[in-house]
Amino acid sequence: MRNSLKSLFSVVFVLLISSSPALWAAELPAPSVAAVAPLPVISQNDLQALQQRLDGLKQQISSANNYNQLEGPQDRVQAFILDVDKLSAALLPQQAQLAVQLSVLGAAPATEVAAEQADIVAQRASLAEQKSKIDASLKSLAALKQSAADLITQIAGIRRSLLESELTLGTHSVLSPHFWSPLVSPTPDDRQRWRFFIAQISETWATVWAPGQRFYTTFLVLLALVIWTFGRRLAERGLTWLCIHRVPEGRLRRSALAFASALATIVTTGLALQLLFYACTRHEPLTPVLETFSEEFEKAVYACVLITGLSRALLSTQHPSWRLPAIADPVALAMKPYPRILSGTLLVLVTLVQVSNSTGMSSQIVVAGRGVISIVVMVIVVSLLLRVGKVRKALVAANDASATGSTFSGVVYTIASISMLVSAIALLTGYISLSRFITYEVVWAYIVLSGFYLLIQVIKDGCEYAFSAKHASGKALKQLLGIGDRRLEQISILLSGFSRAALLLLAVIALFVGGIGTTLGQLATNIMAILGGAGLRKFNIVPAHLLNAVLALMIGIWLIRALRRWLDNEFLPKTDMDPGMCASLSTLFSNIGYAFVILMTLSSLGVQWTNLAWIVSALSVGIGFGLQEIVKNFVSGLILLTERPVKVGDLISISGVEGDIRRINVRATEIQLSDRSIVIVPNSQLISQNLRNVTLGGSAQGVASLELMFPLDIDPEEVKDLLLNTYRENETILDKPASFVRFSKLSPDGITLTVTGYVGSPRIVGVTKSDLLFEILKRLGAAGIALATPPPSSP
């Protein structure tokens, strides 16, 4: 804060000097060197410590001889990058502050003309020296970060190579005694490493259990145990009560209860692990071997907790009505004990294998441990599959409707069965690492699919509730956005669909980039490495910009809709423009506004328009082959909205279609016929073809003309007066132009007279002619005048 105030004071100082140099030069005292406090910088020793830390990580990576031994160093390299970023972020404001202060002082003058300028020179030199140190520190930190980033890439390559070599490495079969010999009679070196590990545990425990620390250690261990057991139950009951009493009844409550159960298990286990770690390291840090073991042990614990927590949440054997997946009660009860058995067995066996990895035991004992894990996991999974299959057959035999499973569950059952068969074959043929990889992938697939299934259900039910017109949130959104129930339901479906699609994409990626022992940070890093590839980096799209883009899109659409309602309801009705012009302006405003919102959304994403050249090229090719009609209609629609040769409300006739224009869209125009049906005409036809606009200009009149044939013996003048009087007395016939009767034809069959009058609009011609014809026939009958009878048609 002190440095920020100095910077602000310096900027104000420059502004005031530039506005009134003579006055302020006389009143302000000269700056002194003592006023410049040195800023904290990173010393050379700190940079050397970071370099040594990175060198130690490189040494650990180079000495790794199997795939799992690289997981811990990879996490530590990621932590190293985060620490470097924090230091760089702390130095950047100081660099900016020094740059501002130096710009305030300006460049050094050619000659020193005043004695007080010596202080300014000294101050400038001090600031320049501090800035050079910070620049050098930032440059060194950038080099360290780049080196660490390159090391991450190298680790990925080494892990890929080790994984490929391990999966294709053939050893002894599990039926061979040579496979079990490293476990039954370890080599002296492995025994020595085991004793070394036990000795380090003993030393750490002696430090923790030293006199004066026993009570505190006992308290922390017991507290961790209480949190892990009773705390989990208490947290689960509390979240359950909260969901029942605060979440509305329905599908959202059911999914919230399942999510709360899993969340309580994971959070309480994490707290218990942190307490245990603090109890063991509150005085002295762990040795490198124990630190590596503790990191891998923590990952294994979280994996096992996810198995049990997600299984408890999805099976819900105590509350079947809370169960999310469509699993029959007998099937759920049959599956209930297996997640606990699997997680407990995995925790013990994986912990033992991690001991061999962290202490650097021989590859034979590591492979043997992997084989034991594969055998045990395979036995548990096969037992689960057989038990579930037996229960489902019993339900089918009893004609229970709940026995009918979904296609997805059948696919999962089939894939798990095939995976266990391949794993067994790999064990028998000596490909132990391949078998362990398959069993791990099956367990990892269960964790990923279960976790993302739970998230998808929560998001889906949450969207349905938040956008429901029956609840307070939906009503508030309706009032805020000014939309109806149908549009609100559409928003809910779209948001839910996009969210589920995104989660499914993340689930598919997580299946391939993760595995048992992968932390949430590693998983997020791997996913971002794929989603943030070269293509997205080229467009400068980063996750931090996604929220800005969504907000820009939502706010922009809301503003456009609000402004259009204001135009339609308040502003345009107060003008002298006709309704057609008002509709055209409103439509044009919406089209331009939505285009502007799309541009703003892309800008919020960080899309650089110079990188969109390939999109323009692709569009040009598409326009040349298949989009030219769409583009032609789009351009024609803009011409119709701007030049307005036709407008909404005009009566037009084109290609045998005559009707009123009801709407001019960007691509096509809607024409309503006399029978109230709608004809959609592409805009390009309205521009390129001959079009008759009956009402252009707003002063078009309709012509009501009737042609009648009378016998030869009538009095033409009498008939003429009768017809003219009938037209003149009709309310819809205009006085000007005046109506008239024309002698059209004289033939042996009779006299043909045509009477013509004008009406105010072409739209009422048909109705007017009908009324006139009824009235003329009535008056002709009263006068005893008959119409001529047409001659019979020749055979």
UniProtKB/TrEMBL annotation:
Q: What is this protein called?
A: Small-conductance mechanosensitive channel
